[in-house]
Predict the structure.
Amino acid sequence: MIKLLSGNEALAWGAYHAGVRVGAAYPGTPSTEILETLSSFDDIYTEWSTNEKVAMEVALGAAYSGVRSLVSMKQVGLNVASDPFMAASITGINAGMVVISADDPGIHSSQNEQDNRHYAKLAKVAMLEPSDSQEAYEFVACAFDLSEQFDTPVLVRTTTRISHAKSPVKLNRRRPKPVTGLGFKHEAGKYVMLPVHARIRHPLIEERLVKLKSYAETSPLNQVFWGERRLGIITSGVAYQYAREVFPRASFLKLGMSYPIPKNLIHDFSSQVDKLIVIEELDPFLEENIQAMGIEVAGKEFIPRAGELNPSIIEAASQCAGLLEKTSPQPKLEITSELPKRPPLLCPGCPHTGLFFILSSLGQRSKLPGAKDKTLREPKLVITGDIGCYTLGALPPHSAMDTTACMGASIGQALGIEKAGVRDKVVAVIGDSTFLHAGITGLVNAVYNQGQITLIILDNGTTAMTGHQDHPGTGISARGKKTKAVELESLVRGIGVSDVKVVDAFNLKALRTSLRSALESSELSVIIVRGDCPIHVRKRSEPRVINTDKCNQCGICLLLGCPAIQNDNGHLLVNPMLCTGQSCTICQQLCPQQAIGPQSKIMDRVLK
Amino acid sequence: MKKLDLLMTGVGGQGIILASNILGEAALAVGYDVKKTDTLGMAQRGGSVISHVRIARKVYSPLIKEGEADILLAFEKLEAARWSYFLKPGGIAIVNNLSQPPLSVNLGNERYPSDEEITKILKQGTDRIYFVNGSSCATKLGDIRTLNMFMLGCVSLFMPLKVSIWKDSTAQHLPPNIQKINTIAFKLGRKEIRSVHLRKGSPTPSRTVVD
């Protein structure tokens, strides 16, 4: 059977056909669909874990118990999970354990573009890099075998253009029957990392690495494609595909296993070509490893280190480096820089819109579009932000977020800013899923250390940005079954916060009042702003309409940043295709002229 | 057909990714190698969306090289202009007659380009520009979400795939209750290109794209 699958779908199919029994993950672009696909299969346990560290520990526990397990995450997720990842390396496993890291060169939806190949070197584990969906399917099976053969977790590293690119896959394997008679292996020397045990384990890890190196020399994962011998290219992952296209006649050494690298194979390849280059995305990972072998090689002196590669970039860089003849440059189109940008926005009907409007106005971050004096006043408040759709609150028209670092950072940062003696009141803004992921410990810390910050938890009942995955607060499992729900207000009170309010996200007045009173209070306060994500619940009703007789074009509704409110040559209107209607009504509440209402009422009034 | 590189562009929420999946699977069904990739990220939230679809006997890169797309299928005019530099000289641009101004335009900070400016930008690379009334056709049909099938109908005339192949691929992606209306949208797209644009003396389109 041939199917057009994304790399993520192929990874899940590959793992399923390799007999994986336990899968755990926290959603994160571009990795999310791996666990989503895995959860659609029968005869397997999958979960959305609270965060990547927990997911890694769940997978490790399963692997200790003789069951093949998989854990997947985005690049920064492996930072969170790095502690148990290092532990998995030193203890080894009992059944195959595969860790998938999906990196995001180009920063399509991340806070950085770190190159996670370094983690393989740090943890001294094998790393495989598929270059299309077919390889994703096959390499995962191979990763499980290697994991068991060498008693190590195996890192499978993808990037956005592997995870989120579709290509044909031959699904030619069958899921094996579960092995019976397994159980947890009681082996304290291997699984209890007391110093006395860890000291014995470390030399074994070094030995394992030597064995992996020797395996890499003859592994079918590494392939040589001979072309002309003038130029030899060493590459891996999606960079291989780009390079093949730009240099159709060159010779290639494609490393499917990119750590540890095969020294003899590389020596052999380099000795048979006139010039050797490395084409890789982000850091000079292969290049530096090859240079350390004393081989002359070029790469990052002309291939960019930052940003996602593509064939056009590699071609232009290679032309500059004299590796390719310059093609007659196409007449450069005089375009696009002047066109208006189209950054992502909070959706129509978004439960974050009202809160950010209030934060923006209390924080003096915006002005009416028609205002004569466009200069903004000195901003009030310091607003620390976090990771989610609501990070868009940092953009105009709200401009109501001053920091965003990593999952859960808003709370610790807020406390630090307060303790630094900053006079402004400090507000931390975090989503429900992010709070459960990495915010709880920050809040415990703020309570313990007597912070006076205001924490706003935006509870939209889902992990929205990654495509609406459930989390411990929703009470629905990864497989769509009902389970226990963590109630945020009880959790927060349990931590020791006494000033806890729950506010309707679509009630502007209540938002303003509760935020004001929290800002005036000298104790730590938590406001849970609750409202469903409209994309998730798909609730729509009669769209709002602007009564043009009443509207004086003051433009304050535009400051909501709602994509449904549009400006047609000075006339404001609500796009009925986009407005979610009764579930929101924020613009209706805001309009000083009371010119906005449901279609039926407004039209009635106009007719009268 | 040696190769076909198709760039689909528009605004998050217009059904572009579903359309490119249907297109990719239709090509796979007749034995071509296919690669397709989208910029997803935060695009659900009204951002600019791009989908690269590459069809050939053997495809390496999932990304199309700048200046080498055979067809630009744009669901919105500003996005057509923005990504037009991907089109090869003399390539085909099919552009839905829709202006969806971004927030900066609504706030009065930037200006939406005029139709003349958009046409001028597109004409720098090609004369084969087809403006189509996809949004109004889909609205008249009663469901704006059929726009993506209308646009596929338009592009289908430039691809050597039988209508039955398109139908099978669509059936795999859409629930039965909305297949009828989407089939009509697909046909309307074909009709629009045929009646409005090909009368101007162009030869039958399906062979003209790729030589």
